[in-house]
Amino acid sequence: MSDETLVKVQGLQKHFPVRSGLFGRVTAQVRAVDGVDFEIHRGETLGLVGESGSGKSTTGRAVLRLIEPSAGSVHFDGVDILSLDSGALRRTRARMQMIFQDPYSSLDPQATVADSVGEPLRVHRGLRGRARDDAVVELLETVGLQARHLRRFPYEFSGGQRQRICIARALAPSPDLLVCDEPVSALDVSIQAQVINLLEDIQQEFGIALLFISHDLAVVRHISDRIAVMYLGRIVEIGEAEQVYTQPRHPYTEALLSAIPVPDPVVQRRRDRIVLDGDIPSPLAPPPGCRFHTRCPYAMDVCREVDPPMIPMAGGGVACHLHDRGPRLHGRSVLEIEPRSRAAEPVHANVKP
Amino acid sequence: MTTLIVNEEVMDEVRADPLLSVENFAVEFATGHGWSRVVDDVSFSVRAGETMGLVGESGSGKSVTAMSIMRLIPTPPGRIAAGRILFEGQDLLALDEPQMRKVRGNHIAMIFQEPLTALNPAFTIGDQLVEAIRAHRKVTRKQAGDRAAELLDLVGIPGARQRLRDYPHRFSGGMLQRAMIAGALACSPKLLIADEPTTALDVTVQAQILTLLRGLQQEFNMAMLFISHDLGVVADICDRVAVMYAGQIVESATVYELFERPLHPYTEGLLLAMPQHGKPTDRLVPIPGVVPEAASVADRCRFETRCRYAADECRAAPVPLTSYGPRATRCVRSKDLVLGGTS
Amino acid sequence: MTTATAIVPGLTMERRSTFWLRFSRNRSGVIAAAYLVLLTAVAFGAPLIAPYDPLEQTLAAINQQPSAAHWLGTDDIGRDILSRMMYGARVSLIAGVASVGLSLLIALPLGLVSGYVKGPLDTVIMRFADAVQTLPALVLALTISAVLGPGLRNATIALAVVFLPTFLRLIRGQVLAVREETYIEASRSIGTPTFDIIRHRVLHNIASPLIVQAAVTMGFALLAEAALSFLGLGVQPPSPSWGRMLSSSYTYVYTAGWQIFIPGVAIALTVLALNVLADALRDSLGREIRTS
């Protein structure tokens, strides 16, 4: 890992028009991603965490320009990829690859392993026949599969093995960045651990940067150097993995952590739990002010009116009024104060000495 | 060599008549080449008011077992090959379809992973709740409607009476699962079978649903059979747990004992594989390999191919489930292995 | 079937062996396939195995009942019906294969582009398909044949045009479904050019339903060709064709009633065989994907 910036995302937005009526007029915009900034350094793993509708997958796809962002910029190794023509973009894609959530639908069911894993080799390096097969075998061995799997079809493999095939395919063009969109969510725990270890190994070996997108904060904490937490199209907190996991600065991060059940009944049943009310609001009409205020146990009047800016802090930043106007946490963890729902007094009175 | 302490108080409870008792149960499915046994020699019980967890990974047979209790396994291609399912002393497998319909939804209710597929998109939530109520209770539509509103309110859906008129697609995933729970509670069942009820939900919504289920269970003293692949969820909600692997129960114990000191290497493997285990910088400890075809390991311990403790004796013969007081394990080496748990 | 491997370059050895294994278990499918193979052999081996010249008239022996000399009898001008049936089979098969082949040749590139790229081209192509489909198939075929003039070639073209919208719609619909699959997105993320994606990924995955539809349509083509020939727009006399034979025997339905049954049964059997084959193909193709 180095401090050299590989990816720089600024003001990224992706709005999906909602068409309705007889003539398909645009009647609303789904603000899937609504102003997102982050950087990924060479060889580092940035975890992107959020629940459904947070825009994390859309962000991942926009970074690779698999979907066209509505606004903002994405620089990859200093090049603005949104300005590239389709030919240049395709050549750049060799350096940024993606692994998808569903290992069942991300491989062509009619294509052999050699054909699927060999696709980047054929497209970018013009390899065919024996030369391609030799290169594919080498990749298969890197991900823990063997030469005998070369002529098999996806249906002959388990979910974990398919994900290995997908990883081999993503490694084929020797990328600098690997976007992993929920790569282990569809897998059983025992297999999940195999795939995570594999991802860590190849990152070590090839010095690839990972953008690891997941809803599972425990998995993300394990694999990431830094974590960004998304809620309704925005990053609400970004920081060192350990800090985010143990000393969260944003109330949503705290709630998310609290909601993940700990696999130990003694600990789990003794924990203080924050159960958020209601559902995530629709990204069609995000709430005014802070987007989290409708479910936030610490919400103050200012939160309903003023959209909190990202406040830079050591190792990252947080977008929350608790840090600039509220009880003035100044970057300390939100765990230090009691949520209003549990406290009798007003929130600011509960700041522990 | 370790000794297993048998708590007499717990033993008394075990001997008490269970509400549901599954005995030596086996299910087979027709395949291209004969019958394949997907559930084999499964025995467990659920007592009134308790939550029994059935935990396992995909293909372990946990959902097939749950569906079989409701007699919802399509036959063919499935068939029940052996065993009894006693509910309040009566063998559900001996009932004919009309008798079974009286049990289903009335005494035993079920909720599923995907609530949207369990609801009819062409009818309102209210219509479907009313139908569920009137299937088992002789009440007027009006009375059933009132009860439906009451139920929605009970499961924490705001503006219950208005929401009755909504179609399923107007509900979020969490709200749908609440509506499903409302439907399941319609006839105050004695047993609720919950098949991965929170797997499709976001974690913050999952926390809501678990809290809801726990509260309702206490309120109605309802027994719950909770099927899950997530050890965290199991640790949160279950009183006792049975771990399934490749169609068999490999271990059962109270939730505290199971996590603190597993007796089967597979249970240990599951706990070790969780990213929460150990320090965050530690390497994860996966279970090597994949679940084998049941037929290929029929003559031995089914976990032997992936077990780090496998020895010759594990390959000698199929392993029976052996009881140690209130616990049971399907491991021939359980007496000389000291496995690691959460403690 | 030669078409199966020609349309699906992705059917490699392993895939084919599982396909054949399943197909071979389907008894009616195998019988239908065997019948069609036999028919093809007879049609193209007719010059070698036909007992008589199909055009040779024996005016001394008209409308004879089946006998040892003429197994299926003779027609109104004393030609051997068996020999004419053999030669006629060739016309029917060519009409079926050629019209479906021609139609696919046009529909495949248009449908693939229409479904994958969408946009204005898609609108134009699909409105054309709508327009063609508003007319009853046989009426349209009749009109086109009449305009182009009678003859086997023109009848084939007419049928190809009639089949075009069905194939276009099927291909486009399949492409629309396939293009949403993650493996297409994966190919895009790899940087694979669009044409390459269509050729290597989309085409393979729409092949199965297309093969089935082609078999069904061939049955219809056979029937339509017979109808066109019956009405005098297909093959011209004296060349033998099942439709023509049906039309000429029709005149003698009271004096030599059996004659009408011979081409009639042959047409019905062949159409049935193609439909049974289509069913068997549908059941045997691409099951790997569903069972996994």
TrEMBL record, chain A:
Keyword terms, alphabetized: ATP-binding, Nucleotide-binding, Transport
GO molecular function: ATP binding; ATP hydrolysis activity
Biological process according to GO: peptide transport; transmembrane transport
InterPro entries in the record: AAA+_ATPase, ABC_transp_ATP-bind, ABC_transporter-like_ATP-bd, ABC_transporter-like_CS, Oligopep_ABC_C, P-loop_NTPase
Highest taxon listed in the record's lineage: Bacteria
Domain ABC transporter as annotated: residue spans: 7-257
Gene3D superfamilies for the chain: P-loop containing nucleotide triphosphate hydrolases
Annotated coiled-coil segments of the chain: none
Record carries keyword Oxidoreductase: no
Pfam families to which the protein is assigned, alphabetical: ABC_tran (PF00005), oligo_HPY (PF08352)
PANTHER family the record matches: D,D-DIPEPTIDE TRANSPORT ATP-BINDING PROTEIN DDPF-RELATED (PTHR43776:SF7), TRANSPORT ATP-BINDING PROTEIN (PTHR43776)
Family statement drawn from the similarity comment of this UniProt entry: Belongs to the ABC transporter superfamily.
Protein name: ABC transporter ATP-binding protein
Species this chain originates from: Acrocarpospora macrocephala
TrEMBL record, chain B:
Main subcellular location of this protein, as a coarse class: membrane
Topology with respect to the bilayer: Peripheral membrane protein
GO molecular function: ATP binding; ATP hydrolysis activity
UniProt entry keywords in alphabetical sequence: ATP-binding, Cell membrane, Membrane, Nucleotide-binding, Transport
GO-annotated cellular components: plasma membrane
InterPro entries: AAA+_ATPase (IPR003593), ABC_Ni/Peptide_Import (IPR050388), ABC_transporter-like_ATP-bd (IPR003439), ABC_transporter-like_CS (IPR017871), Oligopep_ABC_C (IPR013563), P-loop_NTPase (IPR027417)
Pfam families: ABC_tran, oligo_HPY
Protein location: Cell membrane
GO biological process, any: peptide transport
Residue ranges annotated for the ABC transporter domain, each copy included: 20-271
Family: Belongs to the ABC transporter superfamily.
Name listed for the protein in its UniProt record: ABC transporter ATP-binding protein
Native species: Acrocarpospora macrocephala
Automatic annotation (TrEMBL), chain C:
Subcellular location: Cell membrane
Bilayer topology: Multi-pass membrane protein
Pfam families with a match to the protein in the record: BPD_transp_1, OppC_N
GO BP term, example: transmembrane transport
ABC transmembrane type-1 domain residues: 89-278
Family: Belongs to the binding-protein-dependent transport system permease family.
Positions of transmembrane segments: 30-50, 93-116, 128-148, 154-171, 210-236, 256-278
Protein name: Glutathione ABC transporter permease GsiD
PANTHER family: OLIGOPEPTIDE TRANSPORT SYSTEM PERMEASE PROTEIN APPC, PEPTIDE ABC TRANSPORTER PERMEASE PROTEIN
